[in-house]
Amino acid sequence: MSKPIKTVVVVGGGIAGWLTAGRLAAKHKAKDPNGVKVILVESPNIPIIGVGEGTWPTMRSTLIALGISETDFIRECEVSFKQGAKFAKWVDGSEDDFYYHPLVLPQGFGKGDLAAHWLAKENGASTSSFSKDVCFQEAICELGLAPKTIRTPEYADVANYAYHLDSGKFVVFLQKYCTNALGVIHILDDVTDINTCENGDIAAVVTLEQGDIKGDLFVDCTGFSSLLLGKHYQVPFKSCSDVLFVDTALTVQVPYENEHDDIASHTISTGQEAGWIWDIGLQHRRGVGYAYSSKYSSEEQARAVLAKYVGDKFASLTIRKIPIVSGHREKFWQKNCVAVGLSAGFLEPLEASALVLVELSAEMISDQLPQSRDIMDIVAKRFNETFLYRWEKIIDFLKLHYILSKRTDNAFWTDNRSPQSIPESLKESMALWQYRSPADHDFSSNNEIFPAASYQYVLYGMGFKSDYSHTTYALDDVDFAQRHFAHNRKFTEKTISTLPKNRELINKVIEFGFNRI
Amino acid sequence: MTKLVAVDNKNHLNTRVDLSKIEQHGADLQLVPVVLSEFINLAIQYPIVLTKNGNTGQFVISAMLGFEPSENLFWQQEQWQGLYVPLQIRRQPFFIAPSNQQENTNKHNNELTVCLNTESPSLSNQTGEALFDVNGQESKYFHEVKELLSQLLMGEKENNLLLKNLTLMDLIQPMSLDITFANQSTTKLTGLYTIDQDKLGSLSNEQLITLYEMGLLPSIYTMVASLGQVHALINLKNKRLN
User: For a designed S-S bond to B89, which of A113, A507, B26, B118 qualifies (C-beta 3.0 to 4.6 A apart)?
Assistant: First the structure.
């Protein structure tokens, strides 16, 4: 056996760094003398970007894998529950224009094609909202209700959920937990140089105070600077700004009027003249930001749009400007170095893809961690294939939101629909979906970030029609459709009468905590 | 209906409690909260189970009296037919509440006081046990009531100790009951929890000693044994259905 992998060095102490270090340390027993040593080097002088405040339900399995108590996490990171996203003013921009992308799958999904029945407006489809007819979660969100009760065990649910979190507090929480409970070694120092081996591997990162920090695998979590993968290895960046036009975000933190104000249990995404505004409710404040394209809007115009959305308070808030360079590295794992987080790439936060990609990367690195150097290139190749596919799929899915819009108020929207801006893979899928709804076999990965259900929610939420006139037999199973539409109505009634308000549940978690069972 | 007022010998000098009506307070309880000190007495008739408080999500130890909401199978012919009546019933119509008598500066704010549910059907001015004698001195009966209340108060601490250790040692598991009654009707009970006997059997010596030293082991085994009373409860239900 060639050189065993005994030490992993993570460079960068943001959420990406700590989540990767934590997953590695938990699985590979960093605390045990026989385990893999996990070192996290972090500059004391570089601030954390802290982009992600929205997560996917994967965050629940990530926290479970780390052994974190959900109650502690909710108490310490200003966490609230997220049950998907409400997209307002994306179709035509009118006041009553909205649809949901909930986290619960459509009724009967995988057992039959309920979408076909809904499109035909037959057999019990009763409203003009796809998500409302096939999923009970929209009603829960519209009423500001939580996805579970205080009696539901931790990490279990009544309705599938993710979290909104304060990324600054989450970093502190993870740092404390990973160093205390998982045995991650934390070094605060500036990386000044990189030492390489003859084969081109990184031998050590050189730090200002503590000299060489040697390792067998290096994880680049250095954010936009991409110190190892980008600067050292010069792996090219593949821009997708020709597909996704948003290149700037203006963000503000909006306090609640009073501490008992409702907290929305979903992300609200509202279309604007040159982009869209996110609105994320945490326990102590809302995080609001305007993601826009500087080609179609000046910063002054953008500020005015954000000011109008936020209202009177806006004048007193601090505005932060974040550049969004959409795209990713051409590969993510080179030699004995793998990039996770912003160093690997970034996209506009339309579907909260940043943290989920960090989690999936950390999971795969930890799961596939090579035992020895001689097999690392195989793992690297597979990792690169997997994540190139995932990035492409996310780009397709984000673009889907734009090509289905009918807005004409600004060239931002009309240009977004020009064929040359649409990836071939998405065009192909759209061609298929002319005649049928998105199905599982449209997606080849067993760990698809956005499953066929997500595509259905966006397509039919935005008024797309699949034409079943050649395949009217798809509507034959009347009983299936009636049963599932009826079940959805019944379950909607039941859940809205039993679930507490989002704020109410959070307060109870803070006071009493969830039980483990 | 419950309306609590603090008991004193001015307002309640003539108040009497008709003991034969106290048990009415349990007439429509499916579950009644219990304390450790009565486990032995309970286990001869009732399954002792854990449920979650709807408001806090925290575990509550209860004796199970029926299979559906408001069903107390021990309530028959306007009487409690069980051999042992739980403290929570016998203490009626009295409760303990934090004292609000701020005018008395010698008292701490967290001092407790005995309250009376003025809506209780057991209250009377004519028949039953008096709380005070004509001179305003506490009666023997009222003294016994206070004993019961303090037993419950102490019991709450013991309950918390038990629940805390059961949780720490991961000894609680959900219990799902699928029951078919004599008339072929079925019921599925959820939201009940009990001791995980496999985990109980595989505790380390250290954990067992901890439970032993805290005096919790007998209660844990009594809880396990009491589950057999589910069959007795099914029998009662079958009789009622016939």
Answer: B26
Any CB–CB contact under 8 A between A516 and chain B? yes
Nearest partner of A147 among A158, A163, A155, A156, judged by Cα = A158
Cα angle value A58/A62/A64 (rounded, 5°): 115
Question: Which of A323, A342, A370 is the C-terminal boundary of a domain?
Answer: A323
Assess whether A234 and A172 both reside in one domain: yes
First to last CA, chain A: 44
Residue of A nearest to B171 (CA): A517
Instruction: Render pLDDT for A76-93 as a digit per residue (tens, 0 to 9).
Output: 999 999 999 999 999 999
Q: Are residues A386 and A252 in the same domain?
A: no
pLDDT at residue A123 above 80? no
Q: How large is the average pLDDT for residues A327-351? A: 96
Least confident of A117-131, A187-201, A403-417, B55-69: A117-131
Domain that holds residue A307: 248-323
Please answer whether residues A162 and A168 qualify as being in contact, where contact means their C-beta atoms are separated by less than 8 angstroms: no
pLDDT, tens only, A41-75:
999 988 776 666 899 999 999 999 999 999 999 99
Tell me, yes or no, whether A217 and A338 share the same domain: yes
Residues A517, B52: C-beta atoms closer than 8 Å: no
Q: Which amino acid is present at B48?
A: I
H runs (alpha helix) in A406-511:
411-416, 424-433, 452-461, 478-498, 502-511
CB spacing of A151 vs B57 below 8 angstroms: yes
Non-local CB neighbours of A267 within 8 Å, separated by 6+ positions: A54, A82, A84, A85, A86, A164, A278, A279, A280, A352
Nearest C-alpha in B relative to A499: B54
- The minimum CA-CA distance between A69 and chain B, rounded to whole Å, is 13
> Mutating which of A71, A74, A150, A511 best tests the B interface, going by the most B Cβ atoms within 10 A?
A150
Chain A residues in contact with B59 (beta carbon < 8 A): 515
In this complex, the residue of B52, B170, B173 whose CB is nearest that of residue A151 is B52
Q: To 5 degrees, how large is the angle CA B141–CA B142–CA B144? A: 65
Q: Which domain holds residue B145?
A: 4-241
- Looking at residue B1, what is its pLDDT? 67
Minimum-distance CB partner of B58 among A149, A512, A517: A512
Question: Nearest 5°: phi and psi at A108?
Answer: 65, 15
Q: Which amino acid is at A44?
A: P
- From residue B205, how far is each of A85, B168, B170, B201, B208 by CA, in Å? 51, 15, 15, 11, 5
Contacts of A515 in chain B (CB under 8 A): 52, 57-59, 167
Return the pLDDT at A183.
Answer: 97
Q: Which two tokens stand for residue A503?
A: 């704020």
Q: Confirm whether the ipTM is greater than 0.90.
A: no
User: What pLDDT tens digit does each residue of chain B (242 aa) get?
Assistant: 688 999 998 899 889 999 889 999 999 999 999 999 999 999 999 999 999 999 999 999 999 999 999 999 999 998 999 999 999 999 999 999 887 655 555 545 567 899 999 999 999 888 899 999 989 999 999 999 999 999 999 999 999 999 999 999 999 999 988 999 999 999 999 899 999 999 999 999 999 999 999 999 999 999 999 999 999 999 999 998 87
Total domains in chain A come to: 2
From CA B185, how far away is CA A516, in angstroms rounded? 33
Per DSSP, helices labelled H in B172-228 are: 197-201, 205-213, 217-226
Q: Scan for tokens 């595509």, then name that residue.
A: A455
Report whether A150 contacts A158 (CB < 8 A): no
| Co-location of A254 and A376 in the same domain | no
Looking at residue A117, what is its pLDDT? 92
SS3 (DSSP) at A410 = coil
